[in-house]
Amino acid sequence: MVYSEMVAEFTDGVPCGAPEGNDVGETARALLQAPDGVHGIMSAIRVLVLEDSLIIAMEAEDMLRLAGVENIDIVGSVEQARAVIAAETYDFALLDVNLGEGMSFGFARHLLDLDIPFGFVSGYSDTGDFPPDLQHIPLLVKPFDETAMREFLLRLFPAVV
What is the spatial distance between Cα 79 and Cα 119, in angstroms, rounded to a whole number? Predict the structure, then answer.
C-alpha cells in the first residue's frame, strides 16, 4: 500500500476545515495564484512524490493540489517508486534525495531514461555533492513553504509562466 492510500484510509473519518476565520488554505491559495489571477500554475494530472517522511510528503501534496495537480501518489522507498512508475503514467516526480536507506539518484536516472521530468527535495541547499549528471536538476530545499514550492515548480516547468 502506498502512503497516499494509507493517508486516505486514515483521513476518511477525520473532520476537515478550520474554525471560522482561520482558513489558512485561502492564504496558501493566494500565494500560489498565477500572475494573471487564475488559481494553479500547472495542469499536471498525476505526480509521484518519493519521500520517506510522511509529514513532509503530505505538506508537499497539499501544496501541489493548490498548484493545480489532480492526482498525487506518495511512496516512501525506491522499490515502491519503481513499482508505481511501471504501473502508472506520471507528468512529473518529486524525489527526496536522502531516503534513509540510500539516495534517490539511481531512480532519478531511471526517470531521465523514461523522459519523466522531476526535481529533487533535500534539506541541503547545495547540489555540489550530487553526481555531476544530476547537478542541473531543480532543487526544493526543506523546509519549504507555498512560495518556495511555486518557485520550484516554475523552475521545473518554466513554460507555464
Answer: 18
Instruction: Return the ∠ at Cα 113 (arms to 92 and 128), rounded to 5°.
Output: 75
Domain range summary for the chain, segments of one domain joined by +:
3-10+42-156
Q: Is the pLDDT of residue 7 over 60?
A: no
CA–CA gap between residue 90 and residue 133 (Å, rounded): 22
Specify the residue for cell string 518554466. 158
CATH number of 3-10+42-156: 3.40.50.2300
Is the sign of the CA dihedral 12, 72, 153, 36 positive or negative?
negative
User: What number of other Cβ atoms are within 10 A of residue 139's Cβ?
Assistant: 19
pLDDT in tens, 130-154: 999 999 999 999 999 999 999 999 9
User: Which tens digit of pLDDT belongs to each residue from 63-105?
Assistant: 999 988 889 999 999 999 999 999 999 999 999 999 998 999 9
Q: Residue type for 21, please? A: G
Instruction: Look at residue 130 and give its three-state secondary structure.
Output: coil
